[in-house]
Amino acid sequence: MKVLKFGGTSVGSVESLQSLTKIVQQSFLNNDHPIVVTSAMSGITNLLTQMAENAADQKAFDHDIKLIETSHFDIVKSLISIQNQNPVFTKLKLMLNELEDVLQGIFALKELSLQSKDLVLSYGEKLSTFMVAKILEESISQAMFVDASHYIKTDSNFGNANLNEALTNQLIQSLVHSNPDKLLVVTGFISSNDKGRMTTLGRGGSDYTAAIFASNLNADVIEIWTDVNGMLTADPRIVKKAFSLPSLSYTEAMELSYFGAKVIYPPTMIPAFMKKIPIVIRNTFQPEFEGTKIQFESDQSKFPIKGISSISDVSIINVSGSGMIGKTGFSGRLFTLLAREQINVILITQSSSEHSITFAVHPNDAKKAIQLISSEFELELEATKLILPEIEENLSVLAIVGENMKKTPGISGKLFHALGRNGINVRAIAQGSSEFNISVIISKNDLAKALNSVHDAFFAELKKTLNVFTLGTGNIGTTMFRQLEDQHHFLLENNDLEIKVIGTSNSRKMIFNENGIDLKDWKNNLEENGEIADLTNFIERMKKNEFTKLCFHR
Ligand code: ADP
Ligand code: ASP
Ligand code: MG
């Protein structure tokens, strides 16, 4: 048995849904007994959040309901045969009417509780999954829509609910046993509490839904179908040279995703790990690519680390004072307090003098954390044994991850050298006790540069890239472009060096292309597509700090 989970972009367009259909058909015909789990169409969960907030703020939401309707209806029109469309429109319309009623309730109350928000968000998954079930039914008559909130039971921690394992297991077993021949098409992300009120499993939680179904049914594999070629060495939106990893251990995947690699939701690894079910991350838009396999063992890769991830927005709080020295239980008291109030501490560092503890939290939690500390440690503060902590903002966490790290000396040296050489100041450092990860806190402004330079440092066997900016396209400039074009292949093959001209300008026009300007056609391109030349702007773009090896020619 297989659980196939398709994320937002995989259900977001006609093209991706055609690919999804082929993948599911193949698995069904293969007798894999697949169960399909789907997310809301991409962008819909964010839109629903905005609509719920708008309703509470007395702002209109009807236009957005229409937008959601159109995005689903357009797909139905393209992928469901005309004679079958009407009942699908009717059911979708019913759900949209319910959503409108809920939003009207929020509008009338002028307030949005976490409970109502979960109810609003649930429509994203219900609408898309119903639509996907009906699309699949066109070719697989056994396809059946399943609202997972009837089967995944949780506590009442709205927005990030915790699983009631025993009850969920019972319900999933009976669902599957009473529908042995069906192709179940299940909503991701949503669940319900003991009173039957809608809850959700946390943003990105559809991956977790897939793992819950898989572990309860002892599936052979969980396939997470998304829009990239598996787990990459870094976030491909920031590090252009990031490449796909063939395999990872559960721990490595957990650490990378915990520190921001959103391609998989961290809790997903827990049920999979407990039952030793492999997770394979694959690309709906390139289904022939094998993707990344997450399993028990970490394989021996030729690189000392597996990947780099980052959380772009954190705040840090530094608690210090003489009252902490030698006081056993101080940190216990501090972190129990934060945990009790549901404040997630992203990482902790303590100096060896025991004189201070620094910890990182999500910026939204920082003020509350200070208030809690102020009241819990009121006496210590009054006696000046503790200094009132302050919040430092606009920071990011960068983490390098890999099980082989502990066997390889010099890893932190390499990390700090790469950061230092690029002028990146490290505000705090934390090494997990597992030695599978080293995290540093840096300024948010430095994050893109830091990720790229650390990536270059650890994956140096890859080709190096020299990014070139040039001024002047007269004789010398033209000759240089010709030479670069002539030598491009040779340098790549023999020196592992790729030279890219990222920006060029003459006195009238300038053009930029972060993937490299086409050197065969630069002249036309500059004339036809160039912006008006502006030296200050040119220099600003050149300084835009994502390029680590940079060359300027004039
Ligand atoms: P889905 O909607 O399929 O669940 P997500 O948007 O949740 O997809 O996750 C996929 C995205 O995660 C990718 O498009 C990519 O931009 C981002 N991402 C961040 N870090 C990584 C990484 N290390 N490897 C792969 N993708 C990453
Ligand atoms: N739709 C939900 C979200 O955007 C769940 C998911 O995509 O996994 O967070
Ligand atoms: Mg996701």
Can you put this structure into words, describing what you see?
The chain is of the alpha/beta class and 554 residues long. It has 17 helices and 21 strands. The protein has helices at 14-29, 44-56, 62-79, 82-109, 114-137, 165-178, 206-216, 250-258, 269-275, 330-340, 363-376, 378-382, 411-421, 447-458, 475-495, 522-529, 535-543, and strands at residues 2-6, 34-38, 143-146, 183-187, 190-192, 198-200, 221-226, 247-249, 279-283, 292-295, 307-320, 345-350, 356-361, 391-401, 426-431, 437-443, 464-471, 497-505, 509-512, 531-532, 550-553. An 8-stranded mixed sheet has the order 3-4-2-1-7-9-10-8, sandwiched between helices. The mean pLDDT is 93. The chain binds adenosine-5'-diphosphate, aspartic acid and magnesium ion. Adenosine-5'-diphosphate (ADP) binds at residues 7-10, 39, 42, 204, 226-228, 231-232, 234-237, 261-263, 307, 309.
List the helices and strands and how they pair.
Blueprint: E1 2-6, H1 14-29, E2 34-38, H2 44-56, H3 62-79, H4 82-109, H5 114-137, E3 143-146, H6 165-178, E4 183-187, E5 190-192, E6 198-200, H7 206-216, E7 221-226, E8 247-249, H8 250-258, H9 269-275, E9 279-283, E10 292-295, E11 307-320, H10 330-340, E12 345-350, E13 356-361, H11 363-376, H12 378-382, E14 391-401, H13 411-421, E15 426-431, E16 437-443, H14 447-458, E17 464-471, H15 475-495, E18 497-505, E19 509-512, H16 522-529, E20 531-532, H17 535-543, E21 550-553
Parallel strand pairs: 1-2, 1-7, 2-4, 3-4, 7-9, 8-10, 17-18, 17-21
Antiparallel strand pairs: 5-6, 9-10, 11-13, 11-14, 12-13, 14-16, 15-16, 18-19, 19-20
Helix pairs in contact: 2-4, 2-5, 3-4, 4-5, 7-9, 8-9, 13-14
Bound molecules: adenosine-5'-diphosphate, aspartic acid and magnesium ion.
The site of aspartic acid (ASP) has 13 residues, from helix 7.
